[in-house]
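Support case: MRU complex. Customer-provided input:
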Amino acid sequence: VTAGRTILETVRWRNGRVRILDQTLLPDREVYLELETLDEVADAIGRLAVRGAPAIGIAGALGLAAASRGFRRCDAGAFLEDLEAAAARLSSARPTAVNLSWACNLAVEAVRRRAGDGGSPEELVQALLAEGERILEEDLHLSAAMGEHGMKLLPDPARVVTHCNTGGLATAGGGTALGVVLEAARRGRGVFVHVDETRPLLQGSRLTAWELQRAGIPYAIQADGAAAWLFRTQSIDAVLVGADRVAANGDTANKLGTFTLALAAREFGVPFYVVAPRSSFDLSLEDGLRIPIELRAEEEVLLCAGRPAAPAGARAWNPAFDVTPAALVSGWVTEREVEHPPFRP
Ligand code: MRU
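Agent response - structure generated as follows:
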């Protein structure tokens, strides 16, 4: 389990570039990409080569550092202008996970401060990279803290359901919801995971199952529609999911299908926990209906493993996320503790 957790290098800084594990090719192939231009970083985020709320935040901040080789360096003002434009471009690559714009904003702020102190363009580049690396480093600690708090909510042994991928592939560290499972197993607790396949892009069956297998944790993949029947027929201790954005009232955006899973969990009295770092919280939004929901290409639904899954000419509706109302959530596990709204700032 320890090996499975620590070897993953989902997103890192390497030789002046952002090195990512290309998640579109998993589980078949482990291929790393080195991104150095703004276009390459935006493309990798947009097509989910790097994905998961914390991981795209880190990729965004480090991506700005890589892309800064193309920024004007005649003076600090010009550099800042180019940086701000690049940050706006990356932030819009995926609109729902607030971590992306949060991390890009932190990077811009760090550079602005350095420019305010009279920093040269070279010093601004250093400040930019230092901020990206700080965000990455911090993420490692956040995963550990969420794992610690979340584990206390589970019996030993535990049988849990999870949706999408919220492990080491979605963060720099051990993960959010799946990080709790990995931490419990690492400490010798028994845990069995029911993995939602997570149509249309199969983050559950391709990525979560891959992580669990590496960690030696027993699991079974189920079609997304299986949840209610699973709760009806088996004894499930908890549902653990991640979040892309949590509004001030606790409404939680996460991968499409999370809301349906929460409704089924409520019907059968199964505790439903959201595990997410505070960087996924957007307290400026009163409720979840204000969260922008990314609409993705119809082809993702109309094709399955590259082959047609619908008649030629069929249309599809493909929101990447849904919003689970706060009332269906039993608790929000953050790096601080198990929290409930109204959240402290
Ligand atoms: O579209 P994705 O694969 O980026 O969606 C990811 C999720 O919905 C995760 O549950 C969320 O980002 C939390 S990950 C720690």
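The first helix runs from residue 2 to 7.

Case will auto-close in a few days if no follow-up is received.
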